[in-house]
Every structure is written in C-alpha cells, then in structure tokens.
Write a structure and sequence with these properties.
It contains 5 helices and 5 strands, in the order ββαααβαββα. It has helices at residues 15-22, 25-30, 33-36, 50-57, 80-98; strands at residues 2-5, 8-12, 44-45, 64-68, 74-79. The strands form 2 sheets. A 3-stranded mixed beta sheet has the order 3-4-5.
Length: 104
C-alpha cells in the first residue's frame, strides 16, 4: 500500500509486513503505518520512458510501482506486465515499419 502525505508519495507499507500484526491485537493497536513504512521504495516518474520504467522494475520484486510527478505527488501506479507488453508492442511496430519491402 502506498503512503502519502498531502498527496505526496512518502513510501509504501507491505501487506506481508502488516500480516504479522493481525494475529496480535495488542500490537495491532499500537503499530502505525510509519512504523512499517519503507521510504526507500522505487518509483517511476510520470514522464519516464518505458525503458526507464523497466529499469526501476529490475530493482523491485513486486508487480507494481507508484507513478509520481516531478514533486512526488502520487499520480497512479504501473504494472510490470504493462511495461513489458508496451515495449514488445513498440518493438514489433518499429520492426514492421522499418522492414524492407519484399522483392518479387
């Protein structure tokens, strides 16, 4: 889950980390998001190229990354498979437009 402060991305909390507190109600009452926050979380800039986005995923085990504006405002998220599919599509499109016409 992404954590924001007045719309600005400040980090993420893993569901895996939260899960360990669910069976201990006493701890669940005193632990806050800031205690579990990962503030060095990878982000993709809104104007990043597909190659840049893929590089970010190469340093991240998850399937999604937050997308932020130049001032770190959270504007959405992007899935690894969407980046890969878009890169594949652009490669195919590029290959078909630059291919030489067949001679007869």
């Amino acid at each position: 889950m992404y954590v924001t402060d007045r719309g600005r991305f400040i980090g993420a909390v893993s569901l895996h980390d939260i899960k360990s507190y669910l069976n201990t109600p006493e701890l669940a009452k005193v632990v806050i998001a800031g205690d579990l926050l990962r503030d060095s979380f990878q982000v993709v800039r809104a104007r990043a190229s597909l190659i840049e986005a893929l590089k970010r995923f190469s340093h991240h085990d998850g399937e999604r990354l937050p997308v932020v504006s130049h001032d770190r405002e959270l504007v959405g998220s992007i899935a690894k498979t969407d980046v890969i599919l878009a890169l594949a599509e652009s490669t195919v499109r590029s290959a078909t437009t630059t291919a030489a016409p067949a001679s007869r």
